[in-house]
Write a structure and sequence with these properties.
single chain; alpha+beta; 3 helices
Length: 114
Amino acid sequence: MRESDLYYLEKEEPVKSCLLFLRQHILNFDKDITEAWKYRMPFFCYKGKMFCYLWVHKKNGLPYIGIVEGGKINHPALIQEDRARMKILLISPNADLPLDTINTILKTALSFYK
């Protein structure tokens, strides 16, 4: 089993299901997005360039999508915190996923790679 698979399986519900859905959603978002294991976390690359990653916030336990070029995106749902380049999109695993927001942010982030 790959390290990336273990990462998801070790999580507790409902975070596990949320992350697994986000993983598949990101991979299906564009045919040129691939999965990689970098910095001991699941990353997604667009044509080999780091695009985004999935992680769980240490303080609040919420899963999130980290957007590598997030600093270039002005969207009210994205949070900078102490990151210089990246921003994150927190996801509540107990609510309906904000797919319109996720898709808008992913589409905007992809525009920096095309």
